[in-house]
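Exercise: predict the fold of this chain.
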Amino acid sequence: MTGRPTLTQRRRDATRLEIARTAAALFAEQGAEATTAEEIAAAAGISLRTFYRYFSVKEDAVAPLLAAGGERWVDLLAESPTDLPLRDALERSAVESLTPADDGAVEAMHWTRSLLRDPRLEGTWQRVHAGSEARLREVLAARCPEGADPLEIRLAAAAATAAIRVALEQWAGSDAAITGPGSPRDLGARCMRELTAGLRFWEGRRQAGGG
């Protein structure tokens, strides 16, 4: 077993992403409120029944697009050198994930801006970040010194996730470009530094008696 997703799972993921892109295009054109699940299904070339096998509500159809950046960020953190201070690893991973590396990433940023400007999708956005925070807690716990306070780990995950969320929301509500001043990368680095500055967790402190 290598952990590689099965062919069936890869096909399901590809279908979910195709539905997400279709929904995002419709939401951008006419708004989430005015778009129906039937319209999304028809535009994606699937039945309404198939649509509901993947998503319970129409707003969540764009969740795969909104979640992609957070998944990449946590993956980058998990893969970062273990001898790199955790604060530096978090900021570096966040900056890299918020820097579009190709045309596909640029397109994803444009989708994100459009979706975050739609108030009907706020609940989906919050659920995406709750999932990202839960996964980040696991990665942080694996990198922590033995005996680290679970509360500090949870606070760290909440602060770091909030940094990404606030940066993207601030950028989406502005006219700033995808790169340069006011970009997701620029705001992400600033938010990460400011929101995690007061956490003792970043000093690698062990609990009393923990070594």
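Check your answer against the key: The chain has a mean pLDDT of 90.
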